[in-house]
Design goal:
single chain, 114 residues, alpha+beta
């Protein structure tokens, strides 16, 4: 049997992740959306859509993003268009979004939540 016919010992398996968005993270999204909406009509809606696109992308492979705090198992993804990061943990096939913060915010904002 040649290599092209040999069974693969490193078979790729699909992993399905569950998503949990904590209430504090939802409050972060709502506060920022209100701020953007007050400054320009429709911008708050665009912000929410952009953030949830980033969150949804985590379910494909949450481990692809750099580990930012090894002890707490924290990673984040930057949103497109807006200067925000989605801070999350990935454990036991569950992605938990703990904060959605402006990139200029101090790390203590998310560290208090994990």
């Amino acid at each position: 049997m040649d290599r092209s016919q040999a069974p693969s010992s490193g078979a790729i398996r699909e992993v399905n992740y569950r998503l949990e968005v904590r209430p504090d993270a939802l409050a972060d999204i709502e506060a920022a959306a209100i701020w953007y909406e007050e400054h320009e009509a429709g911008l708050g809606t665009d912000f929410v859509k952009t953030v949830f696109e980033s969150i949804d992308s985590l379910l494909v492979n949450p481990l692809v993003h750099q580990l930012r705090d090894r002890r707490r198992n924290v990673r984040w993804i930057l949103t497109n268009r807006f200067p925000y990061k989605v801070v999350y943990q990935s454990r036991d096939q569950c992605v938990t979004v703990v904060a959605v913060l402006h990139t200029a915010r101090h790390e203590l904002r998310w560290k208090q939540r994990v």
